[in-house]
TrEMBL record:
GO terms for molecular function: violaxanthin de-epoxidase activity. Residues 153-403 form the VDE lipocalin domain. This is VDE lipocalin domain-containing protein. It comes from the Eukaryota. It holds the Pfam family VDE. GO terms for biological process: xanthophyll cycle. Gene3D superfamilies: 2.40.128.20.
Amino acid sequence: MKWVDEGYEMFVFTDKFIQNNEPAPENLRREVSRADMLVVVAVRNQDSVNWVQMNSQKIPNIFCFDSSPVLQNKLGGSVVHTEIEGNILNKAIEIVRGKNEKESTEIIKTVSDAWGRHNSDDIRFCLLVIINAYIKPVPILKNLRSKGLSTLNCMIKNCGSEVLNCLLDPNCRKALQCLNSCSPTDQVCSYRCIASYESPYLEAFSLCVLQKHNCLELDADIPDKPYVPPLMKFRGEDLTHETAEDLFVGWLGNLDWSWRVVAGQNPAYDQFPCQYQLFYRGKAKGSFWYEPVFQVRSLEGDMLWRRRKYRVKRAGVAGTFYFTVLDNGVVSKEFWTIVDVCDDLSWGLFHYKGAARAAGQSYTGAVLVSPDGSYPSEREKQRLVHALERCGIKEWELFVVDNGSCSNAPLGIPEGSTLHCNIKVGDLRSISN
């Protein structure tokens, strides 16, 4: 939460002291008494339920997840009744008084959908949505606020043909309908819609409405935090820009790809099946490119291959890079860091943070890679955990990628591309077990 705003403070406690019949920690009652929001997770013990009820009466916002049905949810000081008490995930049958019914319903749906994905980014998103709606505005969620007629006027004035072509195309129309069902800041929902129904018409629509004319009046910057230090040495030598690029190129040349993604931290972008990374030097002097190839399970159940193309530029420090991509009509800019790569290239960890400014979305993530998509051996665990900690990530936050059925991947790089400059890559048999 501190990465979002230094003014936010979250106090986390368990109910062990209640179950052990011990007095509450000295500062607990004080923290609860001044809380703006209480999030209750998996509290079912009756003594714990009683304690929560007794000490939370003055807290205006209470969200309960997977907890006792006796516990009540509150938003803005008013009780929200659900079909099953103690669980905000269930349909609300009485909307908060004093707030627009549609807005309150949308808040509950947004929080419920995000919580249901059970990952740290979405848990943080849940908390920020509630803060934004009932405590104080959260700047990074400003895009939850609709612009109304100004958006429509901008689209009609500047992008009439692109809008019409999209509405007449079944795939593009499905994409818009799908996106309309997502909260504007729900990147998991939005990107799944885009990847499922991408088409030239959707790209033209997004390029005009979002990228060229910013009809939604959105904005986003690459996050400043976390600061992730890059790898300093490789095989005993100081890391240089050339060697860092070689590490990205990885196994390409020996294999048909640079790396395969083992696991990733971002729920919107890192969970797709069968992720291949292709890094290579282009024909033009100093040019460097990245092309991820991955599968998407569409919302209609089909498995589809997707491919993107990023321009890569060196940043000021070796091991750090700027990536730029045009993804379905929207430009995304990212800052990547090589966090660690094993000397035998048996695994690597890359961190990124980026923003699709015209879409109003900022994001961070990390990908764990290896030559064949398998998880690093147990003997590498301590080093891997340490690398993840430098990113502010715990190992349990990673989504393991499904690499089970990846035939006919559309790989290959442009003719005339070059690969390694400084390092030599062995073969898979050179990796010690």
